[in-house]
Design a protein that fits this description.
Elements (H helix, E strand, L loop, with lengths): L2 H29 L3 H10 L3 E8 L10 E8 L5 E8 L7 E4 L2
Antiparallel strand pairs: 1-2, 2-3, 3-4
Length: 99
């Protein structure tokens, strides 16, 4: 195999990887619940001083693509952390508290 053929193969592989990464990133971005929806849900559940964190990829069920970590105070004033899981577009919320 010539050097230019090897380089061509590597470039094709990189293009394919870039396309796959773009598709996955777009899927996560467009299906994500807005921060406002997540905060509103947590407030309705009685949480205050809410700070949203990062996406937590393995925290929720398969059908719940949205996984936003958070830190807040519960109705007894205790600081808690957890993740808010929701369906695509930000419906059917569910809270999972960290231990």
């Amino acid at each position: 195999m010539t050097e230019s053929k090897k380089l061509s193969d590597v470039m094709q592989l990189m293009k394919g990887f870039s396309v796959i990464t773009l598709i996955i990133g777009s899927f996560i971005y467009f299906l994500d619940a807005s921060d406002e929806k997540v905060i509103n849900y947590l407030e309705k559940e009685g949480y205050t001083n809410i700070e949203l964190g990062f996406y937590r990829p393995f925290s929720c069920e398969k059908g719940e693509p949205n996984r936003d970590s958070f830190k807040a105070r519960d109705n007894k004033g205790r600081e808690i952390t957890g993740v808010v899981c929701s369906s695509a577009g930000g419906g059917d919320f569910r809270v999972i508290l960290d231990d």
